[in-house]
Specification:
- By secondary structure, this protein is an alpha/beta fold.
- The protein has four domains: 2-32 and 319-394; 53-315, no CATH class; 436-540, Beta-Lactamase (2-Layer Sandwich); 559-723, Reverse transcriptase/Diguanylate cyclase domain (Alpha-Beta Plaits).
- It contains 24 helices and 27 strands.
- A six-stranded parallel beta sheet has the order 4-3-2-13-1-12. Strands 19-18-22-21-20 form a five-stranded antiparallel beta sheet, with helices on both faces. A five-stranded mixed beta sheet has the order 24-25-23-26-27, with helices on both faces.
Length: 724
């Protein structure tokens, strides 16, 4: 039994080394956050592939859309109109009414009526903002503890994938989120309340559901902000997952019978002009983003449906189990790679295992588990390629070692066994002929080919008669005379050369690359050069193709596909880099944020294809306006652009901004529906700061953004500078 075990270990020794090694590299890459964006993208794809869930009948959205704002002819909606809307909603006796509007200040007319509405509506829940620029809740609602936090948690790519259920502001008690307040109010009528299971682990039960807080390294996340009490959001689907009615219909009391009875009613903006939309796993562009009101509805729906229906929450594996998952796939791939020595079989094994991995991961996702998919895919590819390459290299090394051993002992065998010279020569000739490696024997005295084998003739394209007894220079196999002289000089110094890379030409003048292993030998008293070639032309081409592909991938990853300038990711990287550099050099860093004026109207008038052409022209105009190589023009998002200007003072940055505005103005792109001009214009915000290490570059972005909004407030088509 012990001998059988030892034999099995020897047989699979390569796999036992390759699998954990590749898995360790992939896990290390994952722990640095290098795969985080890809894991998020895979999760988003699974959401979009999953069948849409039915509309949640427990929740109704009262949206304030563009038509409502046009009807009211003001924003925000007045206290009188809001009081009348809530009065009409109360007639159908909903369980909870959520107001996703900031009402910390009166909005006349009707403020006294609004205060009376708050006092007479015990199930009305308002919002407050506690992070960033805080916004207080209505005082009366805050006094009655009928307020939820409206803050949302977005990932580095700007998408919402997590729900913030509770947060504890500094110096204040813990506050529930807006969606959590609505859900608990609804569930209270069902007799369902929150129960503590494990205070240390912050584990709670709510009806049929058990909640465990999100941790910073859960799923595909790496060192994420896990402040407050967060969970992964299990979206029901894209926009349209809840019944929606407009505010105008509410005010005119055109509400279908029992539409709102015993339901959660959320009131808030759904107008695109209010810019309250957020990207989510179902978002592919601005038109598929969800309004903040819908995000809160998804949070409330997830809590209620999990508590009452046992709807699946998105769960993750602990890190050791995820590492074992990656190691398992790496081991399967390494085993296949070690047994499949042909390229086609290796590729087929990678595709097969990759397909199985994706199918299993998707099936597990449908059951409510989010497991890594990108990391094991990399492990599958790396292990298969490494396993195949290692076996081929080991076989080649064994063959090469045998030939080297034979060459080293050849002279000794001839001296010791002179009487068996004929048999030895025949044996050598046989090995020489059948060897798969190209071999040539060259006289060092006159540099003529004495003998070549069939593999040598095959790789060079010559016949034996065209090579044997002819000088090396006459055949012109060498890529260059210099290469041949360098090899001869190396042999003069060392008398041996192993895996020396050289260029050579075939009879058809094709250029190829080979590894030369050469050694001087004495054959019948004549000093000769025994050369063994290993053709690596295809490998060199593959390496060149891989390098080209890597350059193309880097360009794709850092360029905007529409405008061909730097994308948001490149902008973030470059701004961070220049912030650190300018902090070291104590030099100013300037940033310009640009926004195309009334671009939504442009798209509505001329169509999105024309809008895309417009953005391309603007991008090129900006690129022409920026002169220095260190300045970076990037697409910040949508119709927004950004220009990073290292070592540039405020006056210089403002001149660049004005030059950009003038260059865009010269384009004379017609814009019939613009509120500024009859042609396309830009509003620009400029900010300048001498960076310090203790601060973040987001301060510069925020200052530039404020300057941009000031430019818009001044009537657009202008540049405003702000120095921090």
């Amino acid at each position: 039994m012990w001998s059988t075990l030892q034999q099995a270990v020897r047989q699979w020794a390569d796999v036992l080394v390759i699998a954990p090694s590749v898995a360790a590299v992939v896990i290390g890459c994952n722990l640095t956050g290098g795969l985080q964006l890809l894991e998020w993208a895979a999760l988003d794809r699974f959401f979009r592939l999953r069948s849409l869930e039915p509309v949640d009948s427990r929740i109704v959205i009262v949206g304030i859309n563009e038509a409502d704002i046009a009807e009211f002819q003001q924003w925000p909606i007045s206290d009188a109109q809001l009081s009348r809307a809530i009065a009409n909603i109360k007639q159908q006796q909903p369980r909870a009414i959520g107001l996703d509007l900031y009402r910390d200040l009166p909005v006349p007319p009707g403020h006294e009526e609004w205060l009376d509405t708050i006092q007479t509506t015990p199930n009305l829940i308002g919002i407050e903002k506690v992070n960033g620029n805080a916004v207080a809740a209505p005082p009366l609602l805050r006094q009655r503890d009928r307020v939820g936090v409206s803050d949302l948690v977005s990932d580095a790519d700007g998408k919402i994938r997590r729900a913030l259920l509770a947060v504890r502001p500094k110096g204040r008690p813990t506050r529930l989120s807006f969606g959590a307040q609505l859900a608990l109010t609804y569930l209270k009528a069902e007799g369902v309340t929150l129960e503590t299971l494990d205070m240390a682990k912050r584990q709670y039960r709510l009806g049929k559901a058990i909640f465990t807080p999100f941790q910073s390294n859960d799923g595909g996340y790496v060192r994420a902000d896990d402040g407050g009490y967060q969970i992964l959001l299990n979206f029901r689907g894209p926009s349209g997952s809840f019944e929606t009615i407009s505010m105008t219909e509410i005010l005119e009391n055109r509400i279908p019978p029992d539409l709102l009875r015993d339901r959660i009613v959320l009131i808030g903006p759904t107008a695109s002009s209010l810019e309250d939309a957020f990207y989510n796993p179902y978002s592919t562009d601005d038109f598929t983003a969800l309004y903040g009101l819908e995000i809160h509805a998804h949070i409330a729906s997830q809590l209620v449906s999990a508590a009452l229906d046992g709807r699946t929450l998105i769960r993750v594996w602990p890190d050791p189990l995820e590492w074992l998952w990656i190691l398992g796939w790496s081991g399967c791939s390494a085993a296949l790679g070690s047994t499949c020595l042909r390229k086609r079989w290796t590729a087929a094994s990678i595709l097969l295992l990759g397909g199985i991995l994706v199918a299993v991961s998707y099936g597990v996702f449908l059951m409510g588990w989010w497991v890594p998919i990108v990391a094991p895919l990399l492990a599958v590819t790396g292990s298969a390629v490494t396993g195949t390459s290692y076996v081929l290299w080991k076989n080649l090394r064994l063959s090469h070692r045998q030939l080297e051993e034979y060459a080293r002992t050849l002279e000794q065998k001839v001296a010791e066994r002179a009487e068996q010279l004929q048999r030895s020569e025949e044996k050598f000739a046989k090995i020489f002929r059948v060897s798969p490696s190209p071999i040539a024997i060259v006289s060092l005295e006159d540099e003529k080919y004495l003998e070549v084998n069939q593999s040598f003739l095959k790789i060079t394209g010559y016949s034996r008669e065209e090579i044997v007894d002819r000088a090396v220079d006459e055949i012109e196999l060498w890529g260059s005379r210099r290469s041949r002289l360098e090899l001869l000089a190396l042999l003069t110094r060392r008398e041996v050369a192993n895996n020396y890379e050289l260029k050579f030409r075939t009879k058809n003048r094709d250029k190829r690359t080979a590894l030369f292993s050469t050694e001087t030998v004495d054959l019948r008293g004549q000093e000769c050069l025994l050369a063994i070639l290993h053709d690596i032309t295809e490998r060199k081409r593959a390496e060149a193709a891989l390098e080209t592909a890597n350059r193309q991938l880097h360009h794709i990853a850092t360029s905007d596909s529409l405008t061909q300038i730097a994308n948001r990711r490149r902008f973030d990287e470059y701004l961070n880099h220049e912030w650190q550099r300018m902090a070291r050099e104590r030099q100013p860093l300037s940033l310009i944020l640009c926004d195309v004026d009334d671009f939504k109207r442009f798209n509505d008038t001329y169509g999105h294809p024309t809008g895309d052409v417009c953005l391309k022209q603007i991008a090129q105009a900006m690129r022409r306006s920026v002169k220095r190589p260190a300045d970076l023009v990037a697409r910040y998002g949508g119709e927004e652009f950004a220009v990073v200007l290292p070592n540039t003072h405020a006056n210089g940055a403002l001149k660049v901004a004005r030059a950009i505005r003038e260059e865009v103005w010269k384009l004379a792109i017609p814009h019939a529906t613009s509120r500024v001009s009859d042609r396309v214009t830009l509003s620009l915000g400029v900010a300048t700061q001498i960076p310090v290490f203790a601060r973040l570059p987001e301060l510069l972005v925020a200052a530039s953004d404020r300057a941009l909004y000031e430019a818009k407030a001044r009537g657009r088509n202008c540049a405003v500078a702000q120095t921090i």
